[in-house]
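Q: How do we represent a protein-ligand complex in a form that can be generated token by token?
A: Start from the inputs.
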Amino acid sequence: MSTSLERREALKDNEILWYERMLEIREFEKRTNELFASGEIRGTTHLCVGQEALAVGLATVLEPEDVIAATYRSHGIALAFGLTSHSTMAEIMGKATGCAGGVGGSMHMCDKSIGLLPTSAIIGGGMPVAAGAALAFQIQNKPQVAVAFFGDAATNIGAFHESLNLAAIWKLPVVFVIDNNVYGEYSRINLTTPIEDLHLRAASYDMPSIKVDGMDIYAVQEAMTQAVDGARRGEGPTLVEAKTYRFSGHSRADQALYRPAGELEMWQKKDPILLTEQALTKKGLLSEAKILDMKAAMVEFIDQAINQARLDPEPGLEQMFENIYTAAKASNA
Amino acid sequence: MSTSLERREALKDNEILWYERMLEIREFEKRTNELFASGEIRGTTHLCVGQEALAVGLATVLEPEDVIAATYRSHGIALAFGLTSHSTMAEIMGKATGCAGGVGGSMHMCDKSIGLLPTSAIIGGGMPVAAGAALAFQIQNKPQVAVAFFGDAATNIGAFHESLNLAAIWKLPVVFVIDNNVYGEYSRINLTTPIEDLHLRAASYDMPSIKVDGMDIYAVQEAMTQAVDGARRGEGPTLVEAKTYRFSGHSRADQALYRPAGELEMWQKKDPILLTEQALTKKGLLSEAKILDMKAAMVEFIDQAINQARLDPEPGLEQMFENIYTAAKASNA
Amino acid sequence: MRFRQAIVAAMTDEMKADESVIFFGEDVAAAEGPFKTSEGLLENFGPVRVRDTPISEMAFTGAAVGAAMMGMRPVIEIMFMEFLGVALDQLVTEGAKMHYLSKGEFSVPMVVRASCGSGLGFGSQHSQTLENWVAATPGLKVVQPSDPQSAYSLLRAAIQDNNPVMFLEPRILYAERGEVDTNLKMEIGRARVLQEGSDVTVVSLGNMVSVARKAIKDSGLSAELIDLATLVPWDRAAILESVKKTGRLIVVEESPWSGGWGSEIVSFITTELFSDLKSAPMRITAPDVPVPFNGTLEARYVPTSEDVSAAITEIVTNNKVLQPWWIQKGLNR
Amino acid sequence: MRFRQAIVAAMTDEMKADESVIFFGEDVAAAEGPFKTSEGLLENFGPVRVRDTPISEMAFTGAAVGAAMMGMRPVIEIMFMEFLGVALDQLVTEGAKMHYLSKGEFSVPMVVRASCGSGLGFGSQHSQTLENWVAATPGLKVVQPSDPQSAYSLLRAAIQDNNPVMFLEPRILYAERGEVDTNLKMEIGRARVLQEGSDVTVVSLGNMVSVARKAIKDSGLSAELIDLATLVPWDRAAILESVKKTGRLIVVEESPWSGGWGSEIVSFITTELFSDLKSAPMRITAPDVPVPFNGTLEARYVPTSEDVSAAITEIVTNNKVLQPWWIQKGLNR
Ligand SMILES: Cc1ncc(C[n+]2csc(CCOP(=O)(O)OP(=O)(O)O)c2C)c(N)n1
Ligand SMILES: Cc1ncc(C[n+]2csc(CCOP(=O)(O)OP(=O)(O)O)c2C)c(N)n1
Ligand SMILES: [Mg+2]
Ligand SMILES: [Mg+2]
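Then emit the structure tokens for the protein with thiamine diphosphate bound:
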């Protein structure tokens, strides 16, 4: 079985793998939803169905030494960056083999080897942290970049404003990525936010911004490359707004009945998996048969990951008392 | 002796009184500074020398039923709105006759009768509160307006962002006034903020904004009238940026040695008291002799206020235990 | 009715009784609350009084302060107590001090409802009780119901109170059922003696009340069960009276061993009743660790009825206190 | 040297010893700190390592978290402890949990320096100690020095610690002088027995240590004076040992009667040493009121050496505890 870092590195220039990783996320989230419904997963889940192109596109652009501070909605980010479906599912199931040893749960993905900082369940929680990671890179003179990844509705929290301002005045190598999936919980963005194009908020900080179609992995790669390369070259932060759509409800059992009629259907026509299939088929890299094969294989693959996680042990009572304080400094990045 | 409300109402259309009130603030701050230096005032002080036109201009536009949430730098706002020099000084001296009974101090001015909410010593502290007052007016269907008054550097705190967004989405009758006096403590604004014209941040909230010369009381009145009238008519919030300059140091004994050479002198040419003198002289309302008389009288007036405050009693020990909790609802505005 | 329905009922009855009661928070209006604690409120009271907010805890907490000062009685919902970590300033440093800083001119009749506590698999950033954030705040009251009846009666009392009240709702109780007499009034500041007993006083709060109740039953001993209900200002008289009678004290709390609220009770009672005590007083708490996600660990995180009944038996039978389970097991760091 | 110079010295020595130590906060660089606690740091270590920040406590506290995770050792300054009320999330909910949520993969070696406490006339929003905000946070250490030596030694230890450390500096001590041996190491988690004694153990912290020392002298009795120094994790062993010897316990604290940290000490020690106690243990605290500005009231707010020596005399001579002064005087609400 490959490590998360190997999984991350394998993505490099491998378009089929991009597609496969998107399928993996899609299938993973589908099964997660089922497992939650059946009671096998407790707590809460926040799915990213429909947003796979953004996660995978971003992963293909960043180097493994770069870091990302994301949110409770991060199964997709975690998988795209390389975390295995097994480790991700084990965490969601609270198993000792999970990426956080089972004490984190669905909202707390983490893997240092691929730059996945512990994701935060607090809105705005990751933005200052990403800025701080970027500050370290700047001081250390390292060509690394930090990414803060968050939702549209998170652009209304104070930490957003403060983090962008700080990153701008210090010219930090950080990219702020808004995953604008149109909803914050059960509220459509227009109900809580007076402007539609959230990247325009960058002007308050004299910061460049980019708006991108988050359903199109190639567009995502182009936009992210521009932002990440700029940061790496020392040109400072960029605010990227990816227009996506949350195909699922907000969390747990939410049916998203508050959506206007037809909205989901409209966005489903832009399903990133569909779009990628079309692009790859056009390039001759995919055929209908191959697609069916890959999808069937993915069902099998996720099934195995789930079954493996099911058999895994739970953390022992002593695990609860570990990693509260540390004597040694973790050999941080 | 007139009450604060009478002092406020007397301002109405009385240009000479505007000038006099500005003189009062200037002399008050000068004496406050001396009293602090001599040790008669303890704690801290934040003077507003040079910013009198903004305070008085604002006071002439607002109705006494309107409210203002301001900051630790509010002797001028308090006096402009009507608080007596005696009550203000008594508070700064910690006397029982002070506007907060001597338990507040220089940073905490308050007078309900003139809509002066307890000023906050926390950056950003007053902005959400002003939005909330405006919410009450909106719900109560009252034609009242709330003002949040704060400094340039306060536009970098999270509460600024959140308050403007909330006010915009709810179309609250609130006016956000940036007193851009170029410095936040010892840091010139350009060192902490990537843009110069802070009112441009209103665009993030689809909110109208106005930039105004804060040294010119007539310009202030015009800008504030536009913003306040808009709010009163139900058109929602406005962000007003008044360009002023802090003639004094930040607080206490600060000599402001960090200022670029010549900057203070340049701004002193726009001294709001000078500008008002010139305007009123042109209108035939002031003469050189009258100016001298008024200034001399003001020295006397503030002297009396100080002497009175000096003789006032300190709060008793029991005062410390009062007004922590209340059984009765204060008959709020 | 269920605990969450008791909340709805209290809100409904207060909103009917007093037009100045308004309610806002994230997804509390159209979606009727993430925990369905505002079912029907929007429908019954309309969008002027029941509002969804942007994700801006600082702004809307402060907006409640300002609206309260202007004569409204705002109730707000902080979805998870942890989110107050981005807004504590407005409640503790602004709201709770307004009455004091205005010499009693303004009162701040507002209620901050927040769900708290562990047990539902929400992980370490969504499962704490965090009473310590608000406990040492003169000017603020802190209340925590333990069953549908106290949820109803205390919430009504909180809304009628003329001071800011922090109303902590143990999330795990939302689905619990119990009788509710809507005519039964409960006073803030009064503990409830739920069960009389002669040999030991068991003080608990929130979710721990039913744990303590079961423990007492299991122990078969005569213990007096007290629901503290109000944490600030807590009912010193009631606990004194009980311990005077029983001569023994056990406090059962969900908060951590270090910094938890129970020390306050043990400390005060010991100082006052030292010579009346037949044995050492004791606390039964959670350990000093973040709340773990894994279900087995999370269940072990909070005190269990076995912990409590063992402690009751030991203290009553042998006048001895048991060490915390993690020390017994040698799991202490 | 003075207390504030001890801070500077510790910062200087650590920045010399370890390149990864960086420092930022509001006006700490060019202006060398509002309390002159960073004199010479910018000059000696340059603008890359010593930085002024915008007024954005949330952003820069979080930036310290992120930078620490990437291998730096950030020290930040929160000018007044109250300002953490706008940034608590980043320290408590993000920083303190990163090690746990990453299965130990990341450590967060950062120090949050904050001035705290009353005595200088800064009023109710700038004078609290607020240990309660951070005390119940597994993953965070909390330290408070009481003299120049402990300021120096503990700050060095805090910077060398691999966990987040809250370093509370009693503001009133900044100007105090004392001997500093820069070779003397102090360990976090160890209390200091400052004076041995046989009849009562007096535990204190920060500014209260010298108050307790004077009180002991005035009482003429044999009291053991302990400077707790670390509040989390506090030195249970040291206090146990002392109280075992003396049989009596007085805790002297600047925090309020309700919710203050002293209850933790009294509660734990009583539970452990009940039968060794010769008299009731007790706390001497501030009353449950906001810190008043007026100098006379503010001086009465904190425990005085007269309060403490009277309590010592009473407990040692009569095995009795004194009621708090405000209750004796009938001033309780
Ligand atoms: C400070 C804070 N407030 C509220 C919440 C509750 N909450 C969790 S997700 C969410 C909606 C966020 O929407 P958005 O930022 O658009 O991200 P998305 O969930 O759509 O990915 C809210 C309000 C939180 N976690 N933290
Ligand atoms: C949250 C918070 N952070 C920091 C401070 C300390 N502080 C007081 S005044 C000030 C500068 C504010 O500058 P500006 O907003 O421009 O207002 P001005 O003082 O110039 O009127 C700072 C940093 C504070 N009071 N509150
Ligand atoms: Mg969204
Ligand atoms: Mg300024």
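The two ends of chain C are 43 Å apart (CA to CA). Chain C is about 40% helix and 20% strand.
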